[in-house]
Design a protein that fits this description.
The protein has about 475 residues and is an alpha+beta fold. Helix content is about 25%, strand content about 15%.
């Protein structure tokens, strides 16, 4: 059964990691994780790339002056018909400082915006920061029928809406605005509309071998092992992919990423292909996740599900998926699906501890497990020493939908595909009970916070100590 639910870098790849701590036996939550920003896969490592992209998009929007799509018209009416919402949108843009680095582009020219559809600057070929909601909506309108192109491994812009909102979403007004359910509903509508295009044959035009195409030599090199690992057919248009999203959710060939020890029920395997963001032990039922760095609050993460108390004092293993990653999920154990819970939430809400940053969402991944749109799949492993575990898939930012391919009561085999992310890189968690004594592999522990090092899906991540 397939269920689709709309849930509505730094200049170098090096990263500092907080020193590992011994895990306490008490009630205090201890964790290890990243302390610096990293752009890999979501946003270009060079901020100038974002600047140039925004400059070009605003210039194009001013020149075309296209009428708003219905979903954008409704968004505009929503803003303008509610004084409190209108004020927050205006404040969100007004609160972006006019001092460096927010006031100028890469070449030192003042930032401007669109008034109506006329560009107000003699520097029409430079960056124009987004300073009002009408400019924001005009840019959103243009993105509804635009698929991402490949520029380079470190310069592809997978989250264009995040690029538009990178400064305003970090302001006090932006923090408040993106926690309002009705605002998130509007963003959900926009993302769903964009998702229709990205799932349509019209979006497949970027799947070509020319420069900027996702099948070009440079793109294939950046994705590493594409022709050997993924199902494709070079004799067909777009190598057999029917849309941008079909390419984005591409499947491995038979025999790629096998489960190494399928008959050893003590082993837990990686459910997603990504870097280890954080591992936390002795996780609390309630914690101040909006204040503490990398604190997990189970009641919030699991939306007060009846199973919350079973995980109190347990362990959270969180991974991060880049836009270039494999985006399907696989079962970490053999057992039975006992429940599936879709939790609506936010899209661009970032942690209050993170200021204005192009990587506010990237650095809010722990926070997002409690507030973002997500799905929680509860599984009961056949091995009683594992018992109940939970997989969480977070549909953050441009990831406007998650698709679950299993159903409640279904038997699942370790390594079996269980679902996927659509339209963007994302984050996921495995949550273990305190009775589940998992010892993480040395290779996993050593990579916590180093998200440039990808742990392959179905790779053993831990062993259960009886």
């Amino acid at each position: 059964m397939t269920t689709t639910q709309s849930l509505s870098g730094s200049p170098s790849p090096s990263q500092s990691v907080r020193p590992s701590k011994k895990f306490s036996d008490g009630k205090t939550q201890d964790s290890i994780g990243p302390t610096v920003e990293l752009r890999i896969g979501w946003m270009p490592q060079d901020p100038a790339v974002v600047n140039r992209w925004l400059s070009k998009k605003i210039e194009q929007a001013g020149e075309k002056d296209e009428p708003f799509a219905e979903v954008i018209q409704k968004f505009q009416k929503f803003i303008e018909n509610d004084a409190s919402i209108l004020i927050l949108f205006q404040q969100m843009f007004n609160q972006v400082p006019t001092t460096p680095p927010y006031d100028k582009d890469t070449w030192g020219n003042p930032s401007v915006s669109i008034v109506g559809c006329v560009l107000v600057s003699k520097f029409a070929h430079h960056l124009y920061k987004v300073r009002d909601y009408k400019t924001m909506l005009r840019l959103f309108n243009s993105l509804l029928t635009e698929a991402p192109i490949f520029t380079s491994k470190h310069a592809s812009l997978a989250f264009p809406i995040n690029a538009i909102l990178q400064w305003p979403m970090g302001t006090p007004a932006g923090k408040a605005l993106f926690q309002i359910p009705s605002v998130n509903e509007q963003f959900c509508n926009v993302l769903n509309e964009r998702g229709k295009y990205l799932s349509s044959p019209a979006s497949a035009h970027v799947l070509n071998t020319e420069p900027g195409g996702w099948l070009s030599d440079e793109a294939l090199k950046a994705m590493g092992g594409f022709t050997d690992d993924f199902i494709h057919d070079t004799s067909k248009p777009h190598w057999g992919f029917t849309s941008w999203d079909d390419f984005f959710t591409r499947r491995f060939k038979e025999g790629i990423r096998p489960v190494p020890a399928p008959y050893d029920s003590r082993i837990v395997t990686n459910p997603c292909e990504g870097g280890v963001y954080n591992i936390a032990h002795n996780v609390l039922e309630h914690d101040t996740f909006w204040i503490k760095e990398n604190a997990y609050s189970l009641a919030d993460m699991l939306a007060n599900h009846e199973f919350v108390t079973k995980f109190v004092g347990g362990t959270v293993y969180q991974t991060w998926l880049s836009a270039l990653s494999y985006h399907r999920w696989h079962s970490p154990v053999t057992g039975t699906v006992v429940d599936i819970d879709f939790v609506p939430g936010t899209y661009y809400s970032s942690s209050p501890t993170v200021g204005m940053s192009p990587l506010a969402l990237r650095n809010s991944q722990g926070y997002l497990t409690s507030v973002a749109t997500r799905v929680n799949i509860y599984m009961h492993a056949d091995n009683p020493d594992i018992g109940l575990i939970c997989f969480m898939g977070v549909g953050m930012a441009e990831v406007s939908s998650v698709e679950v391919q299993v159903k409640k009561g279904e038997r699942i085999i370790q390594g079996q595909e269980t679902g996927m992310f659509h339209f963007g890189g994302s984050t996921s968690c495995l949550i273990f009970r305190p009775e589940t004594k998992i010892k993480f592999m040395e290779d996993v522990d050593s990579k916590v916070g180093d998200m440039a090092n990808i742990i392959k899906v179905n790779t053993p991540i831990g062993c259960i100590e009886a």
